[in-house]
């Protein structure tokens, strides 16, 4: 077999590569686990729906010597909480690339930072396969009290030249689906994909040559049109994503990803991040996002966060569309901002069995 036709496993980006094309893993075998332990960090937030609460694991890091490696979360479970005499413990099971499942354990006494979006950073223990580091998505870097992840902005050669000359990004007015213009925020779009050269790469950043991407509801049958959502998205070509700007982006500036709630028949509920490889930094529409030779200068920007996350029900067509149709959906989770003296784990036990959704006002995205 020639080298060009060899199938390569890209462990960190959850795909196979062959003949210049990329094929992302869509169906997973039985989860691959392990008992190896690692020191790490987790950035997470407590959010409330009507009658339930969950913890969203925004970022997970393994401390590998003096460096940090981060992992793209694909699926995650409802958390398990335990109250002890001297601490409160949380356990979350997370699926990363190629069916690897890790267990993340952290406690209220492990708090390291609080962020403007309502999330909190904890040191944690990570339990997983012995070769876990090989499945990390990318590198991260500490700069003083902030953590940065390496991400990529893909566009044309002319646009890259203009951006590098100005040393700032103009925000996009388009939503994730690429079909509606925003008025109260602009987003600078990044990805952890280092290049966009295959049709499947476009799918992962919510674009398509045909302007349509398709999804199947839980327990659906692909041959049944009533089980398949054909979603109109931004029509684009890999020819318009040939050049890249690489920057370190502070995790405190990255917007909360939308989520799908899965409840297949006979199985436990679990959650999936939508458009996992898209990372958005929201800023005021009339401002710009500056950078230096290495990193985004978030302190010089008017970063804008919204105190909710869109969540869709993967059992219905409307539910699957919800994370993309942000204007019309009522399917949201509201972020809990805890007092300075309290972590999200403390809050959960101190205010259990209460309605934290009704009456909590949040600013929503606004559209033309």
Write the layout of secondary structure elements.
Elements (H helix, E strand, L loop, with lengths): L7 E3 L4 E4 L2 E4 L11 E14 L2 E13 L2 E5 L3 E2 L3 E4 L4 E8 L5 E7 L3 E4 L5 E9 L9 E6 L2 E10 L1 H10 L1 E2 L16 E6 L7 H6 L2 E2 L3 E5 L11 E5 L1 E2 L7 E8 L8 E4 L7 E4 L4 E6 L5 E2 L17 E6 L3 H5 L10 E4 L8 H7 L18
Parallel strand pairs: 17-20, 22-26
Antiparallel strand pairs: 1-2, 2-3, 4-5, 4-12, 4-27, 5-6, 6-13, 7-9, 7-23, 8-9, 9-10, 10-12, 11-12, 13-14, 14-21, 15-25, 16-24, 18-19, 22-23, 26-27
Describe the overall structure.
This protein is mainly beta and 368 residues long. It has one domain. It is built from four helices and 27 strands. The strands form six sheets. It has a nine-stranded mixed β-barrel. Strands 1-2-3 form a three-stranded antiparallel β-sheet. Strands 15-25 form a two-stranded antiparallel ribbon. A hairpin with a 7-residue loop joins strand 22 and strand 23. The mean pLDDT is 92.
């Amino acid at each position: 077999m020639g080298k060009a036709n060899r199938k390569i496993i890209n462990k960190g980006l959850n795909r196979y590569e062959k003949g210049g094309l990329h094929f992302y893993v869509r169906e997973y075998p039985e989860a691959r686990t392990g008992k190896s332990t690692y020191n790490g960090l987790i950035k997470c937030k407590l959010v409330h729906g009507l009658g339930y609460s969950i913890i969203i694991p925004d970022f997970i890091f393994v401390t590998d010597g003096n460096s940090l490696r981060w992992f793209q979360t694909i699926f995650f479970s409802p958390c398990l909480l335990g109250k002890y005499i001297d601490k409160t413990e949380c356990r979350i099971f997370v699926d990363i690339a190629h069916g690897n499942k890790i267990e993340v354990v952290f406690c209220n006494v492990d708090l390291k930072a609080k962020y403007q979006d309502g999330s909190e950073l904890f040191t944690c223990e990570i339990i997983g396969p012995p070769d876990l580091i090989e499945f990390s998505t990318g590198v991260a870097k500490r700069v003083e009290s902030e953590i940065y992840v390496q991400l990529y902005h893909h566009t044309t050669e002319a646009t890259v030249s203009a951006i590098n000359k100005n040393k700032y990004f103009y925000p996009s007015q388009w939503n994730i689906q690429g079909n509606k213009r925003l008025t109260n925020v602009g987003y600078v779009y990044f990805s952890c994909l280092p290049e966009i050269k295959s049709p499947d790469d476009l799918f992962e950043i919510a674009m398509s040559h045909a302007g349509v991407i398709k999804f199947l509801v839980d327990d659906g049958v692909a041959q049944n049109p009533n089980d398949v959502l054909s979603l109109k998205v931004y029509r684009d070509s890999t020819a318009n994503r040939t050049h890249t700007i690489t920057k370190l982006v502070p995790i405190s500036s990255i917007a909360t990803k939308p989520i799908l709630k899965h409840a297949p028949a006979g199985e436990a509920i679990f959650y999936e991040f939508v458009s996992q490889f898209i990372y958005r930094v929201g800023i005021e529409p009339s401002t710009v996002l500056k950078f230096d030779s290495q990193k985004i200068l978030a302190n010089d920007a008017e970063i804008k966060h919204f105190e909710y996350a869109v969540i869709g029900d993967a059992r219905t067509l409307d539910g699957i569309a919800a994370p993309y149709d942000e204007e019309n959906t009522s399917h949201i989770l509201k972020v809990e901002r805890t007092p300075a003296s309290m972590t999200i784990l403390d809050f959960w036990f101190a205010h259990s069995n209460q309605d934290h959704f009704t009456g909590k006002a949040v600013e929503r995205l606004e559209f033309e």
